[in-house]
Amino acid sequence: MSAAVNPAAVPAGPHRAVGQEPVAVVGVGQTRHVSARHDVSIAGLLREAAVRALEDAELTWADIDAVVIGKAPDFFEGVMMPELYLAEALGAVSKPMLRVHTAGSVGGSTALVAANLVAARVHGTVLTVAFEKQSESNAMWGLSLPVPFQAPLTAGAGGFFAPHVRAYMRRTGAPDHIGSLVAFKDRRNALKNPYAHLHEHDLTLEKVRSAPMLWDPIRYSETCPSSDGACAMVLTGVRGAARAPRPAAWMHGGAMRSEPTIFAGKDYVSPQAGRDCAADVYHQAGVVDPRRQIDLAEIYVPFSWYEPMWLENLGFADQGEGWKLVESGVTEMDGDLPVNPSGGVLSSNPIGASGMIRFAEAALQVRGEAGEHQIDGARLALGHAYGGGAQFFSMWLVGSERPDS
Amino acid sequence: MKTSDLLAGIPALAGAEPVTRVTIPARLDYTYTPGAAQSRFLNALTEQRLLGERCPQCTRVYIPPRGVCPTCGVATSEPVDLPHVGTVTTFCIVNIAARGLDVEVPYCYAYVLLDGAHVGLHARIGGIPHDQVHVGQRVEPVWREPDQTGVQSRPSLAAISHFRPTGEPDADPESYRRWM
After folding, report:
1. Of residues B34 and A312, which shows the higher confidence score?
2. Quick one: pLDDT band at residue A1, thresholds 50, 70, 90?
3. What per-residue confidence (pLDDT) applies to B32?
4. Mean confidence (pLDDT) of chain B
5. pTM of the full structure
6. Cβ pair A155:B21 closer than 8 A
């Protein structure tokens, strides 16, 4: 890693805690992400993803020991603690059920909480689910509530992050067209993913580049859509994986980090918590050169400029160099570090589920189950999510081989 | 199975239109207790003063103060009157309106690092065309003048209308590089 890492953030000693159960992803399910699912309730949406994950694993509700669920703020749909009424739809009656919340990174954190329950041998097989029903939400308003200690000027997530994007552009001297290249790539990738929300067959780079500025320097075309969608995974240990009908994805490392929304010296462009989180995950997995050792990454990129920003934060590029990987095609589907072959958050954004989709897509790739957007020979893949004011990070590395093999 | 197919199997609902959307308005009003540090800051605004607080450990100056240094985890108790001039460290131009925001679009949303502070104040830049706003620009607050409504004498950030350029030369980038 080129970026400085806080030594206190990375544990010393063995790569993985002794006695941990290896964690396997044996089932993945997603809904087809769309702008509005008027045909199902929130419960129906979640159940659809969960049933698909169970079918993938060839398991039934009876095989599940616990359910871990996540979504972004309750304020979005206006349903307080939706998990209260979701237990029956998720087969969780009489079983432990746990809700996780870490803003936009929640899909990733939810998967990690579920994985830790398996790793710690608290439960044998855990169903984890995350969702958002943006058609019933007003996320922009939900994120723009006035607070008494700041001038009320933040217009949604894009308005919050646009100044950070400008700071990145200014710091690195990245040319203006980089953001459009990322958006065009991700939308083209999405055409190969049947679950992606945006399938823009007629899109051209010129159309991306000429779209209006919503929050200058962020264009409409460089912004994620609002989606209804859910994602689910079945996580289990060694015995569960042995019974699985299809190859498992094995967790080689997983970590979460947080930092305050505002503090003197906070680097909004490359937050310390993100660097520390990546360093911890790489350490657990024995990765010393992420650019060479990791085959692909599903990174949380809700606004296109976050691809080069996170490439640097995650140690795939030196500081100030991330945009060059984008420009030279390294992150394209056929590049040597494909980023978001699924089409990413820029093509589907059911907010609470978006992080879990990154984790699940990484798992699908190393299982060889990604379909048309499969990256040949993918053996180690990163799933990444961030949330809040670029302050919550969750990541995992999954591989095709058992970590202890 | 589509909802209409499900309903078709129930004779009493033959021909009924499925209900797919119900709008349920909800409204909540919250009372917020600002605490000691923010009370000092908000009350100072009514006197057109910008009151920050210094961390006794790392000496960084926070405005608005939240009563604690988020890095050191200790109370900030030393008030610091900050000058009415600062530097734009980054910004965006917002072209879409968020519901409930009382500001005309497009507007310039910027981080203004007041001289002597170590965190940026979130502020609107006005008084010049948006394409002339730039990083490093020196700006000053434009205070709302008192009127009969008493809005300005209320302890609120609304006491500052916006920031406008001072016309000074741009700040040295080293002065704000670490403190966006």
Report:
1. A312
2. very low
3. 86
4. 90
5. 0.94
6. no
Examine residue A166 and state whether it is found in any structural domain, yes or no.
no
Question: Tens digit of pLDDT for each residue in A251-288?
Answer: 999 999 999 999 999 999 999 999 999 999 999 999 99
Whether B19 and chain A come into contact, CB under 8 Å, resolves to no
Q: Does some domain include residue A30?
A: yes
Where does residue A383 rank: exposed (0-12), middle (13-18), buried (19+ CB within 10 A)? buried
Residue A193 near residue A373 (C-beta atoms within 8 A): yes
Q: How far is B148 from chain A (nearest CA, A)?
A: 22
The answer to whether residue A194 sits within a structural domain is no
pLDDT, tens only, A286-322:
999 999 999 999 999 999 999 999 999 999 999 999 9
A-B CB pairs within 8 A amount to 130
State how far the Cα of A52 lies from the Cα of A28, in Å rounded to an integer. Answer: 7
Task: Give the tokens for residue A302.
Answer: 């809700």
CATH number, residue A95: 3.40.47.10
Q: Please state whether beta strands A296-298 and A380-387 pair in parallel, antiparallel, or not at all (unpaired).
A: parallel
**Residue from A308, A285, A304, A306 nearest A362 by CA:** A285
Domain of A339 in residue numbering reads as 21-139+225-399
Phi/psi at A122 (nearest 5 deg)?
A: -75, -40
Quote the pLDDT of residue A3: 46
Quick check: B60 contacting A, CB < 8 Å? Answer: yes
Q: Chain A contact for B80, CB < 8 A?
A: no
CA distance A251 to chain B (A): 32
CB A356, CB A373: distance < 8 Å: no
Contacts of B38 in chain A (CB under 8 A): 148-149
Chain B residues close to A167, C-beta within 8 Å? 89-90, 135, 180
Does B143 contact A at CB distance below 8 Å?
A: no
Which ipTM did the prediction report?
A: 0.91
CB contact under 8 A, B100 and A156: no
Total count of domains within chain A = 1
CA atoms in the 13 A half-sphere facing the CB of A361? 39
pLDDT at B2: 62
| Alpha-carbon Rg for chain B in angstroms | 24
Nearest CA in chain A to B101: A152
Neighbours of A117 (CB within 10 A): 23
Average pLDDT, stretch A379-384? 98
Instruction: Check if B27 contacts A (Cβ < 8 Å).
Output: no
The minimum CA-CA distance between B145 and chain A, rounded to whole Å, is 17
Cβ contact, residue pair A163, B109, below 8 Å: yes
Model pLDDT, residue B26: 79
**Cβ contact, residue pair B100, A151, below 8 Å:** no
Tokens of residue A23, six digits? 């964690």
**Contact indicator for A238, A360 with CB cutoff of 8 Å:** no
Mutate to test the interface with A, among B23, B31, B54, B94 (most CBs of A within 10 A): B94
What six digits make up the tokens of B56? 């006794």
Q: Which residues of A touch B97 (CB under 8 A)?
A: 155
**Nearest C-alpha neighbor of A129 from the set A379, A375, A323, A359:** A359
Backbone conformation region of residue A173, classed left if phi is above 0, alpha if psi is from -120 to 50, else beta: left
Q: Has residue A352 been placed in a domain? A: yes
Nearest CA to B62 out of B78, B42, B45 is that of B78
Amino acid at residue number A51? V
